[in-house]
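I can't quite decide. Please look over this sequence plus structure tokens:

:::
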Amino acid sequence: MTFIHKYFVSGWPETRRLKAVHPSWQGELTFFPNGAFFGGGMNPNGAWRISADGRTLDICWKHWTRDVLVRNPEGYSNGTLNIIGLLPGAWQNIECESAIPL
């Protein structure tokens, strides 16, 4: 919550909002350049990282198991979760474990 409060006071950083589709829900995920994200079904949060070669996106949910998605022409997918759109290349080297929690 301190992450969110900080940006209410000083302004939001650049974000990227991508559509997510899962068999149980669909909605928008908001990605922050520091490796944090929130959104989706029940508005969960967590951390994310893109592999050094840009082929995989790890979604590290705070309350669920990690999803590893593979890049495709529309975004990223693992057969269950599809994220439509791509994240900026400058954001690709953040580790899930070091992301600032929401």
Q: What stands out?
A: The chain has one domain: 2-98. The chain has a mean pLDDT of 78.
